[in-house]
Design the sequence.
């Protein structure tokens, strides 16, 4: 593909004034790694930015805002600002040459108008959520770092945790791709959670769209090394992710605010209990039980958990929920509600784009190697 990439606010942060050409430019989290991944995948990368609109230097009327009548034509202001335009352009070029040598196939000069390409990556056209957005772009269009495909596990275990720039590969990538396909097949075509490789455990950010996946699942070798300490099967990894995706869908579409959601699952605003309910039957037929690696009564812990279990079961094409929950119980009612709200609401666009707090898993292991972080014995 030909991919056109914007610069300010997309590749580098934009927390400075327009005329500041002194403050050093800084990558947005994940941008450098994702761009290198796109390059390794064989795409043609074009840097297309307002900084590169050199056409404006030759004739102010070439500015599309001037042509549209939004900005008045002021030749004196144009002449006085030409030095700033040159300085901004060269600041960008110098940064790219230094930090991303050979990554971009061309830098558009603006003389030919908007470039023809297959994909635009631009903060004006999409919500740039820092490292999470770039990680998603790398997963969809990029190529995993060869380190995680070819290097011996011994060398990986002895690397400092903070040196890892992890992206999903191997079985984890297969699972995420499969769940994405299941969402699309189910009619949820305009939403995908923002996945983060972070601390141990599976969780979704409260009322936000981030889903955390344990960092050691990023590669098959890492997962195998971590298995003695975190013995979770790939089947249960997939089930756990579906459950957390259920939370994310609930938050993204703000279903928990709907009266019919409350009538079916309960009051979302109730606090979580410190322990699982003790007075209820853990096999209560009013609740869907989907994950096999947690207590049977887990969906009774909170209405949001009851929803997530029902959604995960409904999404999984192998759950056979219509047959398994054929009896007219509360569990069946919950599954039918998911089916109805999916048809009525989830085919549209989400109303909540809040990302949630991103936690850098590496900050929890300062100076530690992967081996030490996983509690593995030294060789």
Sequence:
């Amino acid at each position: 593909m030909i991919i056109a990439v914007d610069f300010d606010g997309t590749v580098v942060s934009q927390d400075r004034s327009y005329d500041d050409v002194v403050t050093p430019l800084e990558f947005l989290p994940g941008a450098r790694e994702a761009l290198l991944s796109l390059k390794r995948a064989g795409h043609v990368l074009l840097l297309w930015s307002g900084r590169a609109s050199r056409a404006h230097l030759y004739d102010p009327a070439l500015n599309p805002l001037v042509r549209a009548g939004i900005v008045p034509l002021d030749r004196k202001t144009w002449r006085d600002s030409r030095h700033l335009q040159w300085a901004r352009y060269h600041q960008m070029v110098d940064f790219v040459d230094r930090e991303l040598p050979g990554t971009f196939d061309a830098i558009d000069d603006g003389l030919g108008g908007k470039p023809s390409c297959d994909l635009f990556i631009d903060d004006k056209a999409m919500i740039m959520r820092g490292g999470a957005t770039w990680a998603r772009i790398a997963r969809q269009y990029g190529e995993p770092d060869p380190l995680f495909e070819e290097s011996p596990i011994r060398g990986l275990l002895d690397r400092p945790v903070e040196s890892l720039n992890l992206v999903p590969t191997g079985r984890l990538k297969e699972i995420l791709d499969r769940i994405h396909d299941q969402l699309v097949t189910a009619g949820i075509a305009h939403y995908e959670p923002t996945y983060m490789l972070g601390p141990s455990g599976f969780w979704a950010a409260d009322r936000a769209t981030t889903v955390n996946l344990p960092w050691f699942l990023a590669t098959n070798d890492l997962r195998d090394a971590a298995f003695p300490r975190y013995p979770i099967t790939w089947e249960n990894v997939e089930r756990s992710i579906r459950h957390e995706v259920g939370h994310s869908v609930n938050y993204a579409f703000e279903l928990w605010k709907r009266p019919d959601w409350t009538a079916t699952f309960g009051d979302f605003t109730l606090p979580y209990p410190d322990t699982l309910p003790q007075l209820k039957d853990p096999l209560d037929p009013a609740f869907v039980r989907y994950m096999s690696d947690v207590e049977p009564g887990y969906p009774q812990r909170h209405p949001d958990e009851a929803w997530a279990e029902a959604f995960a079961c409904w999404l999984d094409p192998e759950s056979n929920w219509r047959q398994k929950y054929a009896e007219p119980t509360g569990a069946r009612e919950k599954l039918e509600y998911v089916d109805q709200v999916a048809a009525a609401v989830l085919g549209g666009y989400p109303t909540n784009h809040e990302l949630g707090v991103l936690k850098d898993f590496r900050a929890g292991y300062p100076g530690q190697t992967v081996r030490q972080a996983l509690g593995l014995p030294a060789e």
Notes: The chain is about 40% helix and 5% strand. The first helix runs from residue 31 to 40. Residues 171-346 form one domain.
